[in-house]
Specification:
Elements (H helix, E strand, L loop, with lengths): L1 H23 L2 H14 L9 H21 L3 H25 L16 H20 L10 H24 L15 H4 L10 E10 L2 E6 L13 E11 L12 E2 L7 H5 L4 E7 L6 H17 L4 E5 L2 H10 L6 E4 L1 H7 L5 E6 L2 E7 L10
Parallel strand pairs: 5-6, 6-7
Antiparallel strand pairs: 1-2, 1-3, 4-7, 5-8, 8-9
């Protein structure tokens, strides 16, 4: 029994610490995943709070994992973890049985698990944590209260600091498809050897008041245009493929709606691209550096553009600062992935990412 309890504690503690640290590397990723759930459930009014929820949940995972390993206040933490795993199992189960969410973000973007894999993992953890909960009175703390509290306090400070650091800069380990060195046009293609969706054309007609559906290979023997009234035709999915590019919805439009994606990704030589979701109250803190970079780039004949999902407001703000940076419109989801720090500056060379800076690092950008 002692060995089983010890092994179970190690598994649970290490797994929660590992899961928390991976997500702490990119708290915005978990925030966006929460927004995905909330939007499906019609709770979009909570979107503005998801980043705070993300930071708290990630911190708790790490703290609880360390507490389980230390054995400190085990009765409390075993109950808290049991309630948390019930919640996680509900989320992953919903993703599996609803089919509305493909990935649950349990280990962030660094280790992607399907909904089925996440659900299986949570079911296993449910039973392990349940076993620990049943035997909670048999577990003793490894060290004194002062030592345990000191360790947990340092862990709390560290987990929160890491998250605020990457929010101001960029993820320490970049697991996103827009990492430095990436050739964006290549990532927009389906992976080599992938299989596209298998579809068949289906027709829907009405005959004598009844709707009849058939594919191109199985027209009714008595088919004629007099008795059959056409309703619609559509592509019916027979088998789902895996021809999904890593970068999707990366489209850059002029304010007039012209697609300029190819022109920008094939631009000969260097080009700076500023990605931003929206203009916030702290815009002045990075606009000064953006102005400096723009002027240095202009002096070197290096173009600089801005791409935003809130292009009109960005253009208005730039004009207030007397900045003539061309502004383009971008897809909200694509910019969320590309700009984990809002905003994020890229240096591209024919679509290849040569440099990438979060807003707090704009001051370090020097064009020589």
């Amino acid at each position: 029994m002692k060995t089983a309890l010890r092994v179970s504690r190690i598994i649970v503690g290490v797994l929660f610490i590992f899961s928390g640290l991976i997500k702490a590397n990119d708290p915005m990723g978990l925030s966006y995943k929460m927004q995905e759930f909330f939007e499906i459930w019609g709770m979009g009014f909570l979107d503005q709070y998801t980043l705070a929820f993300s930071i708290m949940m990630i911190s708790f995972e790490i703290i609880a994992g360390v507490a389980v390993l230390l054995g400190w206040q085990f009765k409390l933490f075993s109950w808290l973890l049991f309630l948390l795993i019930i919640f996680f199992t509900f989320l992953t189960g919903y993703a599996v049985f609803s089919g509305k969410i493909k990935e649950c973000g349990c280990f962030g973007d660094c280790i992607k698990l399907t909904s089925n894999q996440s659900f299986t993992k949570d079911l296993i953890l449910f039973f392990i944590i349940g076993f620990l909960l049943i035997n909670k009175d048999k577990i003793r703390a490894l060290s004194s209260t002062i030592v345990s509290v000191t360790i947990l306090l340092l862990v709390t400070i560290g987990s929160v600091w890491i998250q605020f650091h990457v929010l101001k800069h960029l993820p320490i380990v970049d697991c996103l498809p827009y990492k430095k060195g990436t050739l964006i046009p290549e990532k927009m293609k389906a992976p080599a050897g992938s299989i596209p969706d298998s579809t068949v054309i289906n027709f829907v007609y009405i005959k004598q008041g009844k709707e009849i559906e058939f594919d191109a290979e199985h027209f009714p023997e008595d088919f004629n245009e007099t008795d059959y009234t056409f309703v619609k035709r559509y592509d019916k999915l027979i088998r789902e493929g895996n021809a999904i590019p890593e970068i999707k919805d990366f489209v850059i439009l002029s304010l007039g709606g012209t697609d300029t994606t190819t022109a920008i990704l094939t631009h000969p030589g260097n080009i700076y691209v500023l990605f931003t979701l929206s203009i916030k109250n702290d815009a002045q803190s990075w606009l000064t550096d953006a102005a400096r970079i723009y002027k240095q780039a202009e002096a070197k004949d290096i173009p600089m553009i801005a791409v935003s999902s809130d292009a009109e407001n960005l253009l208005f703000e730039l004009k207030k600062q007397s900045l003539n940076i061309p502004v383009y419109k971008g897809d909200l989801v694509a910019i969320k992935t590309a700009a984990r720090s809002n905003p994020t500056l890229y240096l591209l060379d024919q679509g290849k990412i040569l440099g990438k800076w979060g807003k707090s690092d704009f001051s370090k950008v020097e064009i020589k």
